[in-house]
What does this fold into?
Amino acid sequence: MYPAELTIPMEKDLTEFGFGPLKDSDQVESAIKTKGTSLLIINSVCGCAAGNARPGVKHSLNNDKKPDNLYTVFAGVDREAVDKVREHFLPYPPSSPCIALLKDGQIVHFLERRHIEGNTAQAIAANLQDAYNTHC
It folds into this structure.
């Protein structure tokens, strides 16, 4: 587990942008069951989360179509919530960061760390916007 003083600014990068933090398994279950479209990001302390995932996710929301709901959990901090999210993300292997677009609780688009690492924030945003245009 990471010390809170290290991760609070990284978490706020998304929560202050409108992403609801999920801190336990009950909150995850409630969020997953939400009707409509939801974007859920497993946040991380790694460089690709800071340089690519978080900026890309935020920029992706500059789109006519976008998810109804925004959620985040933090790997290495929100262990119970992350474990529950990963149950719902099967068959995808655990990775952080990762980004899922869900529709009525089902994954319709998924970016694993391997899709984030080495990509630009702009490429991630464009990828997500294409998914929004199809599913939202």
The domain at 4-135 is CATH 3.40.30.10 (Glutaredoxin). The chain has one domain: 4-135. The helical segments are 4-15, 25-32, 47-60, 79-88, 113-116, 121-135. The longest strand covers residues 37-43.
